[in-house]
Amino acid sequence: MITLTRHLAAHAARRVDDCSEILSCLCGWTADDEQIDFGKVGSGVLAQEGAQRAAHVAATWQQARMITDEAGLDALPSGAVDISEAHGVAEQKIGEAWFSAASNQSFEPELPGVVVWTPADGGDQ
Ligand SMILES: [Zn+2]
What we know:
The chain has two domains: about 5-65, no CATH class; about 65-120, no CATH class. The protein has three helices and eight strands; from the N terminus they run αββαβαβββββ. The protein has helices spanning about 5-10, 45-65, 70-75, and strands at about 15, 25, 65, 80-85, 90-95, 95-100, 105, 115. The chain is elongated, with a radius of gyration of 19 Å. Zinc ion (ZN) binds next to helix 2.
């Protein structure tokens, strides 16, 4: 499972080349300048391109961390935290079982869900 650090590195911002004004991403994504409102007060082209890129990075991150089947759940390490789309509540894998803060009974998480943290992401749980 990809970590946030690696994801951000894979989607680092760049300009296509030295003469290009279009913001792009290492993955090949480019900002859509047709979506830019050049007359927008208080939000220049760079800010609007940056917002497009932020939305792209967030969407690809969610996709990269989406679990859609049981094999995906089984492959997660103990300690991983998932939020199922159905419930929106954090669920943590402890050993081979899943728990939420709402109950001390283990359960099978509903799918799909997004993995929000694994031990490989580091930091505090
Ligand atoms: Zn990208």
